[in-house]
Every structure is written in C-alpha cells, then in structure tokens.
Design brief:
Elements lengths: L2 E2 L14 H16 L14 H8 L7 E4 L4 H7 L3 H9 L13 E3 L6 H14 L6 E6 L6 H12 L4 E7 L2 E2 L2 E2 H5 L14 E4 L16
Parallel strand pairs: 2-3, 2-4, 4-5, 5-8
Antiparallel strand pairs: 1-8, 6-7
The structure holds thiamine diphosphate and magnesium ion.
The site of thiamine diphosphate has 16 residues, from strand 6.
Length: 214
C-alpha cells in the first residue's frame, strides 16, 4: 500500500467502517446496476479502502469533504447516511451525492469541486470558523491548472484546506502519464503537503463492465 500522509496531521475520529463493509456497499450497488435498477451512470471504488480509512481518521466530523463522481466511499466514511447515498444513486445522481450534515459535496465535473471548496475554506477563514476543508481529487484532476491555482491560493492565504490525490494513473481509460508525456505517477514533490496514495480499481471508469461503455 503506497500512501503519503504529512506528519503534521492529528487523529480526529474513529472510523466506523471496515474495508469489507465498504466493498460490500459497492458490490450491492454493482448488482443493482447490473439488474438495470439504476438508470444513471455509476463510478465504483475498489482497492483504496485501507488508504481511505486511514485518511478519514484525520478528518473531523464537522469538516467539509469534497469529492468527485467516484464518491460513495468518501460519503460513507464522512458519515453520510448510507440510505441517503443509495437514494442519490437510484435517482441517477450517483455522481453528485451531497449532504448538509455532515458537510459533503461532490461533482461530476473534473475540477468542479475545487473553486467551490476554496470559497468555503476562504469563508471559514473570514468567519474565524475552525472547520477544515478536504478535497479528494483524481490524478488527472491534480494535473490541471485549476488544481495548481487553488492549491497556491489556499497555501498563500493560509486557508484550512487539505488535498488528497488518488492516483490510479488513469483518466477515464487513458493512462495519465501518456496524456502528459510525463513520468508514471503524480509528482507530489511539487505539492509537499498533499496527501497522496496509489491504488488499482477492479471496476472500469464507470459502470461495472456489463453494459456498453462510452
Ligand atoms: C470538465 C470535464 N471534462 C471531462 C470530463 C470527463 N471525465 C470524467 S472523469 C475524467 C477523468 C478524470 O481522471 P482522474 O481525475 O484521474 O479521476 P479518476 O476517475 O481516475 O478517479 C474525465 C476526463 C468531465 N467529467 N468534466
Ligand atoms: Mg485517475
């Protein structure tokens, strides 16, 4: 397991899920999807259970968590009610699970969460609110200009904002390093305090592999 967590982080909570419980959630969703009970696209997680359980120990339950199209594990681990997550999924909104208590927001747009998360972190600072903001992004998202700008702004203005890069070396079906003609994995040395891990997913970018993929 390759995972990089800055030593400065402090444990904030006990995580209530085991790796198997997370896997079971996705397995059931995959079955429902294969049985054509879910009408919208789904993006399933696998292979990053241990990494995420470790990372969520550092996330306070009152903090803000931002995720992407592949958000079920993050939502569960932050304490979003599994039935609410399933409601989103069955309504075809798997890519945009959100919740006010706990604070959780996700978007299907690559980099879509980043400026929003930055605004929340800025607002928290202005209001002297101690809540931190955590952004989970894929390795391709982390290669974008927006990621660089949001990271730079958050550091220069000392916002309470943390970034986690989840590296499967894939952008949909394209190896990220081929798209950019660069070395294989994300260069986390450019972003010293980014939390970073690598993983391999058994599921395709979206769906389960049973239905037609685009
Ligand atoms: C603005 C925008 N461009 C393109 C897409 C299509 N798209 C969805 S996910 C994705 C790849 C993102 O790769 P990465 O950030 O590594 O995330 P992963 O799915 O591997 O976790 C792309 C190009 C999109 N959703 N939004
Ligand atoms: Mg990726």
């Amino acid at each position: 397991m390759y995972i990089r967590i800055p030593k400065s982080l402090k444990v904030k909570r006990i995580v209530n899920y085991t790796p198997q419980e997370l896997k079971n959630f996705e397995t059931k969703i995959a079955k429902n999807y294969n049985d054509a009970l879910i009408k919208g696209p789904i993006h399933l997680s696998h292979g990053n259970e241990k990494q995420l359980i470790k990372i969520f120990k550092y996330i306070d339950k009152n903090d803000w968590v931002f995720s992407s199209w592949r958000n079920h594990y993050h939502a569960l681990l932050h304490g979003v009610n599994p039935n609410l997550i399933k409601k989103f999924i069955f309504e075809g909104k798997s890519m945009s699970v959100s919740s006010k208590n706990p604070n959780f927001f996700s978007s299907s747009i690559v980099t879509g969460i980043l400026p929003i998360a930055l605004g929340v972190a800025k607002s928290n600072t202005l209001k002297k609110n101690k809540r931190a903001v955590w952004c989970f992004v894929g390795d391709m998202t982390a290669e974008t200009g927006i990621f660089n700008e949001v990271y730079k702004y958050s550091k220069n203005f000392k916002l309470k904002m943390n970034f986690i890069v989840e590296d499967n070396n894939l952008s949909t079906n394209t190896p990220t390093h081929k798209a950019w003609n660069k070395s294989k994995y994300f260069d986390h040395k450019k972003y010293p305090d980014v939390i970073y891990y690598r993983y391999k997913n058994i599921y395709p970018h979206h769906g389960t592999g049973k239905w037609v993929l685009f």
